[in-house]
């Protein structure tokens, strides 16, 4: 296969590019707020790197271009492909299936066909831009077939895949009509990374059940096309955030002033905070139910406490997300209608996304952070809150079903399905003494500081380099 002269030594492949296209001709590309860019920037800048991804708009055909020191390679998706591959198979089959079927997954052959077609396009784009022997790092559930396709196109590449969301237990995974193809797609990678040890275990079990390959301590023996075998590593690399960035923002006087302004604006009450994409995996309804009951029972009082719920718009054309939005907005309306006074509101609901500075001001303003996901790969909001609490106080209430719970053991743990337990945990958080807040927050901050995102990408890359060495 012919390669362009500016071939890249490291190629990142993800469904979305780290920039969004806008209609403003003065600034056609804006850096998207996702954490992955921050995570991979050091890797990308230290080498001749390229990033392959979809620019976020239908039918947009753009040649590769440089942005902020990175080479970006846009992959075009038609409106139909967005519907079948992105909204359909990625976000209405894999997403709900991998999040323990909180919403029923749809299994449609048309969606699968589009997924195969689009994955092939990403694999071809990556193969075309990668230098001889380059490292290609593929990201997330939208692109599970890319590792195998890439290996077939370019046997010289070292291929990593990181799975940002949960990998489900075999009993659920086995529902997938294309379960063998997806496992085989992932096994094309040299290193297959997961958020939790449990995810890597679920994957290894699925591989054993479907293919009977030997799996031992994270090493999977995979047969090769020429009758030989190779080792793929499948293990946990919990992702993190750029901790020093949040720490710096949280110390900025203008952001601290903004935090005070937010508190005053809300009547100097205790602030509970929820920050989520508007997604059924996040447990927003459970959170509202628990909070609403605490108010109705008089265990919390609207003059003392308020809940700020940021729910950023997401996947708005997928039915389950439309329905969820209606349910949440109805719940908020009901709680506010029943509890508000003329001066005070129980829930401040914000269906927007905000720049990082404003988020840090909110984290600084919030006494209690509520992360009540029913299932979540990691949940970086929990880590952002901790990193922003430079005063070493504040309380994190954290679902045991979020990947972050494995690391953030000093949070107040909850099972969000248990509404009474959730109510008790919220109350305990509101009432936690300053001394206990500091004790817990100090431990949480230490953990987050010691495992930041640079650490995550280094660990992953080291294992890839180890396998490269084994090959030689
Ligand atoms: C999750 C996924 C990402 C995805 C993000 C936003 O974090 O793991 O792969 O990019 O949600 O979702 P969207 O569908 O807007 O890309």
Automatic annotation (TrEMBL):
Assigned keywords, A-Z: Glycosyltransferase, Transferase
Highest taxon listed in the record's lineage: Bacteria
EC number of the protein: 2.4.1.15
Protein name: Trehalose 6-phosphate synthase
Record carries keyword Transferase: yes
A family per Pfam: Glyco_transf_20
GO biological process, one term: trehalose biosynthetic process
Record-linked Gene3D superfamilies: Glycogen Phosphorylase B
Keyword Glycosyltransferase appears in the UniProt entry: yes
CDD domains xrefs: GT20_TPS
PANTHER family per UniProt: BCDNA.GH08860 (PTHR10788:SF106), TREHALOSE-6-PHOSPHATE SYNTHASE (PTHR10788)
Family affiliation: Belongs to the glycosyltransferase 20 family.
Listed GO MF terms: alpha,alpha-trehalose-phosphate synthase (UDP-forming) activity
